[in-house]
Write a structure and sequence with these properties.
Shape: elongated
Number of domains: 2
Oligomer: single chain
């Protein structure tokens, strides 16, 4: 069944609801249309290829901020862990006017038509991006080595050469300055001393490395 035929069948159902004095509002109609289309077209099962060449240009998830993408990613993971289609869960919340928690912003800012544009290829790309980003990000408890260039002048071929010192990440934070966001980390050396690395992934990325 094509999307056009699905829409036509649902329009007939909407008219019958009106005839029975059980009219649906426009939001409910859009939600039902999205749910039925998703189920009958089989898009939730991830049938589309993740090599779709138009994924970057057409991905609706590009409209989201980094924080919104992270919230959606966590929501999808939670629903999949319970064997529940994440999009159906979200649309059911909207249909019954239930708050969707950390992903309520999707309903408030974007709506069911935007949600219906999201394909399995787009979600696959989101997971790939998160996987790549997490591989570069530090977590509390990670062991790294930091260069003495963080606190003194060094030259590769000079009298004060670069040295590396093992330490453990004990705190992470984000800061904003003039619309620029940067990350800081506090590390603890084996002798108990602590040091804060500013611009962890920005200007000081060259001055720390993963510990072997």
């Amino acid at each position: 069944m094509t999307p056009a035929k699905i829409a036509a069948a649902l329009q007939t159902a909407f008219l019958e609801c009106e005839a029975a004095f059980c009219s649906l509002n426009e939001m409910q109609k859009q939600i039902l249309l999205s749910v039925v289309t998703e189920v009958l077209m089989g898009e939730i099962g991830g049938e589309m290829s993740i090599t779709d060449p138009n994924i970057d240009a057409d991905n609706p998830l590009n409209d989201l901020s980094l924080e919104q993408r992270q919230a959606l990613l966590q929501f999808i993971r939670e629903q999949e862990s319970q064997d529940r289609p994440w999009k159906i869960k979200l649309l059911n919340d909207w249909l019954h006017d239930r708050d969707s928690g950390t992903v309520q912003f999707i309903r408030d800012l974007y709506g069911p038509q935007w949600l219906n544009r999201i394909k399995p290829t787009h979600i696959a790309q989101l997971f790939e991006q998160a996987k790549s980003a997490s591989a570069l990000k530090l977590n509390i408890g990670d062991r790294i080595e930091v260069s003495n260039a963080l606190w003194e002048w060094v030259q590769e071929d000079g009298p004060c050469s670069r040295e590396w010192f093992p330490c453990e990440v004990i705190a992470l934070s984000q800061h904003s300055d003039n619309d620029a966001t940067y990350s800081n980390a506090i590390v603890r050396f084996d002798n108990g001393m602590e040091f804060e690395i500013q611009g962890l992934y920005q200007w000081n990325r060259y001055n720390w490395r993963w510990s072997d």
